[in-house]
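User: I'm curious whether this sequence folds into something compact or stays loose and floppy. Could you predict its structure so I can see for myself?
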Amino acid sequence: MAVPTHTLPSGDELPAVGLGTWKLDDETAKESVHAALDAGYTHVDTAEGYRNERGIGEALAESEHDRDDVFLTSKVLPKNLTYDSLIEACEASLDRLGTEYLDLYLIHWPNPAISLRESLDAMAALSDRGLVRNVGVSNFSAYQLSCAHHVSDVPIAVNQVEFHPWFQRPDLVDYCRDTETVVEAAAPLARTEIFADEVVQDLAQKYDTSAAQVVLRWALDRDVVVLPKSSSPAHVRQNLELDWELDDADRSRLDDRDRDQPVYDTPARDWTGDTYGINR
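Assistant: Here's the prediction. I'll summarize afterward.
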């Protein structure tokens, strides 16, 4: 498949299909990245909180692909959003990934206990040093994103959020569009829960595709970047086979599945966890 791209404020092209790696350990992530690159992916998404950057770095080093041909994203944890901690976290991610720069670096979750201005000042410093080519956020509401745009010295290129047919977030997506912020779908398959949806099942049978392909094709038609994750090389390859079209009526059937139902981005958070929590 010829993967479409989104042009970021820097002029860089962000591939609209990437490999997600949440909850894959180092070895499994390494295998998935190899399968993805062999299948034609040029976009890999990870995070320090996923604890698999080293495995992904090994896969990239072993690949025949030039580093400049792979769009690589990582994210900084909310507990590391003070200025010095964010700089150190990025440098540590670069070391684990074995690369001199990230194509995109995201604030993984907002942390209301730390100044957003301080975090974005650190992002600007990383950009000035050439360690980060594009800056973005993840799991930001429209309110939080509007503040980020207002105080940041570098463009906020991306907001990676939960998005799938059951959780379409029209107000947030519209605000991203209005501010030329690319929407990336974290959990584009609702962590596989969407596979049970009767319309998704019906369309998968109609088009002779997988349920995952139906949902990913729908999101691409909505101009949303998708980051499907799989530990199966066969599924990794299949998730890129999206060079077919949903007809308008079937796309509308999926549009109508919105339940405002998240699988992870719930209104309250557990702030105590070692990985994603916030220090007292």
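Summary: The longest strand covers residues 156-162. Strands lie at 5-7, 13-15, 19-20, 43-45, 71-76, 104-107, 135-138, 156-162, 182-186, 225-226.
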